[in-house]
Amino acid sequence: MVVPFAWFSLTEELPEGFREVAISRDGRGNYYASFSYRQPEEAKREGDVMAFDLGIKTLATGATEGGRTYHIGGFKGSRWYNNQLDRLRSKRSTCKKKYRHYLHLSKVCKHVSQKKCNKQRDSLHKASYLICPDAHL
């Protein structure tokens, strides 16, 4: 197995005492570094408790101590985007690599998958705002 070698520079300072680094790349070719580190545990806060169960078909289902329940549906358009991506990949598979039509279909495929990712991210952001509106100041 050949591991690629790359130079990079960070735009922010390293967190103190980080344990692991994960390098990831998005659809546009941008690289991101994710650092994991331990934080000291805070004292337990008094107040109401809210519990959420993250799911596959529904984004989250939760309940509070007071008996109030929450049901938050997730992103609904993934089937349409998956069909579009399947259709584009099928067309692209009939083309020769590096030809104009193949490159065009690759660009369109990348654009559609990026739109799908943006819609999913927006849906998650809106759901997190529904769960905890005071945290988004």
Automatic annotation (TrEMBL):
* Taxonomy, superkingdom: Bacteria
What name goes with this protein? Answer: Transposase IS891/IS1136/IS1341 domain-containing protein
